[in-house]
Design goal:
Layout (H helix, E strand, L loop, with lengths): L14 H11 L5 E2 L14 H8 L15 H11 L8 E4 L2 H12 L5 E6 L4 H7 L4 E6 L1 E3 L1 E3 L2 H7 L4 E7 L11 H14 L2 E5 L27 E6 H4 L8 E6 L3 H13 L6 H36 L15 E5 L6 H12 L1 E2 L1 E2 L10 E5 L4 H11 L4
Parallel strand pairs: 1-12, 3-4, 3-7, 7-8, 8-9
Antiparallel strand pairs: 2-10, 5-6, 9-10, 11-14, 13-14
The chain binds pyridoxal-5'-phosphate.
Length: 385
């Protein structure tokens, strides 16, 4: 068998996933503190309304538009506000697919995109599968996370085509500040780079700093092309419906939109039912998000109450998003610690190294975990870290 060199050399699971599989096959119940699938976290979804929205007569006909249905785009534009228009949007089957389209749009094989780290680990593979290389540029922590714009400028090469940022970031929760936005867009403009801004978590601000950039759409006239990515998987906590989108603004937006429409036309991957349902789903989204936000805040309060009795443990601010980082003494590697907690406490956490967090001393937990399980999980792991 001969596979493309874009693929990994092997498909063996990492030590944590392998350990989890072994324990589960032995019948061990595992308390999962990493769950990010909202449909398994005990939220009360408006089920009848969701099902009715997916069962409209419109789903029986096929009327493809490479940009996606206008009614869905109108509803998404209204969700974002800030003057976004239906014409500025292109629908995708997920944010991941959006990255694939943008990497095809912007790069040739061997080109690079810059990604501040720590960040969402999927970028590496999403870029490689399009023949590109994701080059990480470490951010730094001083009271909060900061982009290292000097290091980013130094990392720009003749092959660099774009910068990818997540606002707020996963798992650090870092919202870009307005100063970072100005510096980043100027850097991209200076070097002819596009800026991809993933705002899937933008509706989940928890401890946001006053100078945060709530959304890239606040800037009506960025000096570089900006592609904002989002989708129902976080906006409405409905990942199973597979609807994402790209919003274009800045220089060249109309030309980029034609090229993206050409790319999307080769796949037409967004289903008619989810496009027909999108306006209703977005109308239901605030009620679902309120529950999610309530869960995130409850778990954060539980965590702070428990941390008060654990002077060796702490957490950085959680500006936004669904994850939080626990700081611990680096007595072993993060991965060894996660394996230890899995074996000895039957509890799953993510090591910071999964997200490229520098050094050891960080575990990453999901604040989406049902409250009672979150409290029980902390009780199990705190004596062991
Ligand atoms: C930063 C970020 N972007 C995108 C996604 C995935 O979105 P989608 O389900 O639309 O592909 C995730 C999922 O956790 C994420 O953390």
């Amino acid at each position: 068998m001969r596979l493309s060199s874009r693929l990994p050399r092997g498909f063996e699971p990492n030590a944590l996933t392998a350990g989890l599989g072994r324990l589960r096959s032995e019948g061990r119940g595992i308390l999962d503190l990493t769950g990010s699938n909202p449909t398994r976290c005990g939220f009360a979804y408006p089920e009848a309304a969701i099902l009715a929205a997916l069962a409209q007569p419109a789903v029986l006909s096929y009327d493809p538009d490479p940009l996606g249905s206008r009614s869905a785009r109108v509803a998404i534009a209204a969700h974002h506000g800030h003057g976004l228009r239906a014409e500025d949007l292109l629908l995708t089957a997920s944010t991941s697919e959006g990255y694939g389209l943008l990497f095809k749009l912007l790069g040739d094989p061997g080109d690079e995109v810059l990604v501040p780290s720590p960040s969402y680990p999927l970028f590496d593979w999403l870029a490689r599968l399009e023949g590109l290389r994701a080059r990480t540029v470490p951010s730094y922590f001083h009271e909060r996370w900061h982009l290292d714009l000097g290091a980013m400028e130094a990392a720009v090469s003749p092959r660099t085509r774009a910068v990818v940022v997540v606002n707020p970031n996963n798992p650090t929760g870092h919202f870009l500040s307005q100063t970072e936005w100005a510096g980043l867009t100027a850097l991209c403009a200076r070097h002819g780079l596009a800026l991809l801004v993933d705002e899937v978590f933008a509706d989940y601000a928890l401890e946001p700093p006053a100078d945060r950039l709530g959304t890239a759409l606040i800037d009506p006239d960025p000096p570089c092309p900006v592609f904002l990515l989002s989708g129902l998987s976080k906006v409405a906590a409905l990942p199973q419906l597979k609807l994402g989108w790209i919003a274009l603004h800045g220089p060249g937006a109309a030309e980029y939109r034609s090229a993206l429409a050409f790319l999307a036309d080769q796949y037409l991957s967004v289903s008619a039912p989810v496009q027909a349902a999108a306006p209703t789903l977005l109308a239901l989204a605030p009620g679902i998000r309120d529950q999610v936000l309530g869960r995130l805040r409850t778990n954060l309060a539980t965590l702070d109450a428990e941390l008060a009795a654990q002077p060796h443990l702490s957490r950085p601010p959680v500006e936004g998003g669904w994850s939080m980082m626990l700081r611990r003494p680096a007595v072993d590697t993060d991965e060894a610690c996660a394996l230890r907690l899995l074996e000895s406490a039957s509890t799953l956490v993510h090591p910071g190294s999964f997200f490229d967090l520098p050094g050891d001393g960080h575990l990453v937990l999901s604040l989406l975990t049902p409250d009672a399980l979150f409290r029980e999980g902390l009780g199990r792991i705190f004596p062991l870290i």
